NADP-dependent glyceraldehyde-3-phosphate dehydrogenase (Hibiscus trionum), 478 residues
Amino acid sequence: GDGVFKYYSYGEWKKSSSGKAVPIINPTTRQPHFKVQACTQQEVDTLMDEAKTAQKSWAKTPLWKRAELLHKAAALLKEHKVPIAHCLVKEIAKPAKDAVTEAVRSGDLVSYCAEEGVRILGEGKFLVSDSFPGNERTKYCLTSKIPLGVMLAIPPFNYPVNLAVSKIAPALIAGNSIVLKPPTQGAVAALHMVHCFHLAGFPKGLISCVTGKGSEIGDFLTMHPIVNCISFTGGDTGIAISKKAGMIPLQMELGGKDACIILEDADLDLAASNIVKGGFSYSGQRCTAVKVVLVMESVANALVERVKAKVAKLTVGPPEDDCDITPVVTESSANFIEGLVMDAKQKGATFCQEYKREGNLIWPLLLDNVRSDMRIAWEEPFGPVVPVIRITSVEEGIHHCNASNFGLQGCVFTRDINKAILMSDAMETGTVQINSAPARGPDHFPFQGLKDSGIGSQGITNSINMMTKIKTTVINLP
Ligand code: G3P
């Protein structure tokens, strides 16, 4: 056809009546690579109506049948891992191997949701009245979990497939319908993922995928009266959505400034490899990336030397070659990162490598002797730049961690487990990892941010529960 990927509504692939397309720029070539439909508000209205209708009968579909379809979709996702990964390479410059991992991890997540869902949702509660003062045993209360209705899923560019299915699968198993708005970069990978759900044979209208410009359909989607729940992962937009959304449950995973605190007794080799993995995988474009290293002065030189040696081994180049460091997602993102680097330079940070950039490709950079007056001490670069702040007490490290607006994850390196637990209790973040870099997975672990990092908790079990409501029936005996 005209080379514009169609959007998905009522079990069909459709062209938008707008006649317009949104280009997807390949971060590596900086040239348009794919195009998707620029959908209209009217098209959103239509698929919202369809989602509302489809949800009613889906909620009545036996749980085991819902699970069966999800298992089918999971298998298809794995079968289609190569073409999905190809899209991820071209649209978001994810290194080739990591792109395949994302597709496989997504398949695993979908089957786990199906298994977990049949168990969680297959169980209700039975209560009796005479435990509360003044009551006889004359009331029997039955509880079960019912779906919320229509769920709007908005994943970010860094995991357009995985962070889409982490919303879609729990919602579906719980009996909800889905309207997916993928990020523009990553939209074609997401459409391919939806194709797998299509092939699995879900009922028409239950899942739709709408593409287009945020300026045209963004607010329209998030403020749509048919939407009963929003699950969003991304940046500041999440705060704006929270202010505009109606009285509906929200699941938000926003930014992070994950601190990595290194104590004097830490295994420095272990810490260094986790800083490199945590700070530089997918070129630092993860909300759970190590975004600031806080190291005790007495071991700082030894640690920085180790990290430097490992950074020197990172390969830099195109995602097709499976390089460790690949171009960041957009030119404006690269410019933002450069702004943080220049600010640090001007204020006297020590550059462990020379700053180098070609187009959207930024070479990995470790900045030592970063101080609190530098922007990089507080802002998230979402790029391959890791700042090191030297501290003289553990309290100083905890203080820096807690002074952030963010509170996603943090990590502590020490051989003293008692100290580690005390630090975990003191750090105001949703998760603290002991002796490992921050990470969301395994995907059934709870995942949540405090403060500006989010609302609610994710992870398979929490997401299923969040996407349901308790319903009770009380039997009153004579
Ligand atoms: O940036 C999104 C976040 O969910 C990261 O996931 O698996 O890279 O820790 P992960």
